Amino acid sequence: MAKTYKIEYDRNNCIGAGICAALDPENFKMNDDTKADLIDATFNEKTGMWEKEVGQEEYDKIMAAAGGCPVLIIHVIDKETGERLV
Ligand code: SF4
């Protein structure tokens, strides 16, 4: 079965470097306030994180974006195992 991944994005701490939007423009775009938006994400009031789920086909790009973020505020979690990959 195809895997799914949860993205957690701590937008408050974004410094606007733009690497995520360059590496994964399907999931991140820069906003006028100089921070990145996680496209089609939902805000989790409890954690303060923006969240969405993506499929296996988006794995390489989201991992590149998460690993490339200089302040490491993009997290990728394996939905099956709960393991935090970034
Ligand atoms: S790479 Fe990180 S700091 Fe830069 S815009 Fe994206 S989320 Fe913000």
General description of the model:
The chain has helices at about 20-25, 60-70, and strands spanning about 5-10, 30, 35-40, 40-45, 50-55, 75-80. It starts with a strand and ends in an 8-residue tail after the last strand. The protein is globular and about 40 Å long. A hairpin with a 4-residue loop joins strand 4 and strand 5 (about 50-55). About 15% of the residues lie in helices and about 30% in strands. It has one domain (about 5-80): Alpha-Beta Plaits (2-Layer Sandwich), CATH 3.30.70. The longest helix has 10 residues, at about 60-70. The strands form two sheets. Strands 4-5-1-6 form a four-stranded antiparallel β-sheet, covered by helices on one side. With about 90 residues, the protein is an alpha+beta fold. The protein is built from two helices and six strands. Iron/sulfur cluster (SF4) binds next to helix 1.
